[in-house]
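call fold(seq) -> tokens
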Amino acid sequence: MMPRCFCLLLLAAIAGCDNSLAVNLPSTVTRTETPHDRFDPQQTGTITGVVAWAGDRPKVEPIKLTRFESRGMQVEAVPNPNAPQIAANGVVQSGVVFLRGVDPALGNPAAAPPTRVELEETRLSVFQGGTRYRTAFVPVGSEVDIRSTFTTITGVRGRGADFFTTMLPDANAVTRRTFSRPGRVELTSASGQFWAVADLFVCEHAYYARTDAAGRFALPDVPAGEYELVCWHPNWHILGTERDPETAMVVRQKYGPAVEKIARVRVTVQGTVAINFTLASVDFTK
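ret:
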């Protein structure tokens, strides 16, 4: 065994003051391009449009819940979280529109305010900037807070671009998760709220939008080029349920596949292109 003083001298010699280790490193290093290195706001255009509903408005039934309490069996109805929000003039509010086929190195980087996923007694929501949403967008690498308002242990499940189950043992205690893979993450309850669902789009660029109260959307600073413009909306139809074999209560619910309408779009420098989408009940699979 080496004497302790010899080991210290050896370490000191290795650490050295002459930077000999640094001098002997390879002198040619290939630079790795980081995302958005080539984004040029002077070479961009804008996409605008409106999402509207065609035909009769769907009759979306509320979801009936059965609870066993000290006073006996109680039946409660909660709204279907995937029901479309259609204004009086027929436009679709809170619809999702995004670009597909953007080179992340050329695109404007995504940004988002602090984001929190919250599980409540009757719904699952995503809060951004103090506003509650059914669907939200965050950049790749974002840290998102997850919490529950329940006083008993609950959990939030993620499927899709990320796969996880986060248990929440205490009311309002926050668990933080980093979302590192781009794509859509479907969020559901892992603790009995079988109807509760929300979506988190993890984005490599800034070209995601929700339609406003007038059904409008805008995607500014899009690099000139050709893309797919996607209008996305969750499906409210229930394809099936799973029940607890002992209580016969529903423990999981499967909704139909989300609807995507796609339009090819060509963006020119300093130009504005208008693309409108129309959704209808026939688009949504039962």
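The chain has two helices and 24 strands.
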